[in-house]
Amino acid sequence: MSAFGKIKCYLACFLLFYTFYLHDYKCHQVRESSPFDVGALIQPAQPYHNYVCGSLQTGSNNVHAFLDRTIHAHPLFIKYEGAQKLALLRQTYATYLFPVLKPVLQAVDFVEFHVVEHFDHQFHRVKALLVGAEEKVEEVKEAVEEAAE
Question: How far apart are CA 82 and CA 79, in angstroms?
Answer without folding.
Answer: 8
